[in-house]
Specification:
Length: 343
């Protein structure tokens, strides 16, 4: 009878990093993921990485393009890889501008290699699909190295947001407080604390489960970036590093509006297919029950629109971006204004 070893070693992740993590200086290289395909039997996915180190201190992991159609993070992080020097810091900065390189190359939310949404498959698998291997590497190698993690997002091609930095409600209240402080230090025009309604498989959750300080953003949308949204990202990442005690500089601080998303009542989902007529623009205040959008049918004329209403009072912080919507799509997001002072 063949005996099965129930304690077999965990499979090894095939991703190899071409730069050192523990040597002082500035090192540019790649996370090289072997990927055999029709046009390259021994091919690889090459994910750029920069490691900047100057002595002992905290480590910050900075990531962009977890979704491939979001651009503020990649722009700000590419600039940082060029501009930040070892003499400017104490500690270590790990920069991955294009976390989901296959999706970034194709300008899509999910990976064209396996159809996976990288931000929904953590902790991944070392012997899984390409996206699962990327997730596993970040979960088991990069995140454990970090003390602070900043993951840039925006709305991509299908959503648009007011520019905000975000931290999550956590059961570990000391960790939650540290995340909120780092979010406030980022100093986006809006600072949002939210209770995630579906956090299973998210990079956010994986990092928070490691006990790290985690901040995310939503800095715009529509599948592009603007001068303003990139400026917010570039200022914010430096403020974040200053807050972490890594970058030796003075923060740039501007007014920020404090917001809260405590539950699912913040979201409005369409139950119809059709043409969106916005009634409220991003950043405007709404009252609970007020109309925020109409969805007009497109199959024939003379049919009334379906009207959708805010489920709570607050500010419209997010909306569906394309002019056409499908049943089940997120139509709008409303967040409450809150007093940022401790209660």
């Amino acid at each position: 009878m063949i005996q099965v070893n129930a304690t077999a070693a965990r499979p090894t992740n095939p991703i190899a990093c071409t730069v050192p993590f523990d040597e002082d200086g500035k090192h540019h290289g790649f996370l090289r993921l072997p990927y055999s395909r029709n046009d390259s039997a021994w091919g690889s996915v090459m994910i750029p990485i920069t490691v900047i180190r100057n002595g002992e201190g905290s480590t910050a992991l900075l990531t962009g393009a977890c979704h491939g159609d979001e651009y503020e993070g990649p722009v700000a992080l590419q600039a940082l890889t060029s501009e930040l020097e070892p003499k400017d810091i104490e500690g270590r900065v790990i920069i991955v501008p294009f976390m989901n390189m296959p999706a970034f190359r194709s300008a899509t939310r999910v990976s064209p290699l396996d159809g996976a949404n990288l931000n929904r498959i953590f902790p991944g698998r070392p012997d899984g699909s390409p996206s699962e291997k990327i997730a596993d590497y970040f979960d088991t190698v990069l995140a454990p190295m970090a003390d602070y993690v900043l993951d840039f997002h925006s709305g991509g091609k299908t959503l648009d947001f007011v520019p905000f930095a975000a931290a999550h409600r956590l059961e570990a209240k000391l960790q939650e407080a540290s995340c909120i402080a780092a979010m406030q230090a980022f100093n986006a025009p809006y600072s949002l604390v939210l209770l995630e309604i579906d956090n299973v498989g998210m990079f956010d959750t994986a990092v928070e489960n490691h006990g790290k300080v985690f901040v995310s953003t939503e800095l715009g949308g529509g599948g592009t970036a603007t001068a303003r949204s990139v400026g917010i990202a570039r200022k914010g990442v430096r403020n974040f590093l200053i807050h972490a005690g890594i970058l030796k500089a003075e923060p740039v601080v501007e007014p920020t509006e404090s917001l809260d998303m405590p539950d699912a009542e913040c979201f409005v989902f369409s139950e119809d297919d059709g043409l969106i007529e916005p009634i409220v623009d991003l950043g405007e205040e709404v009252e609970e029950g007020a109309p925020i959008a109409r969805v007009w049918p497109v199959g024939r004329s003379g049919v009334p629109a379906a009207t959708y209403h805010a489920r709570r009072s607050g500010i419209l912080v997010g909306r569906h971006f394309p002019g056409l919507v499908k049943s089940g799509d997120c139509l709008a997001v409303v967040a409450e204004k809150v007093d940022p002072r401790p209660q």
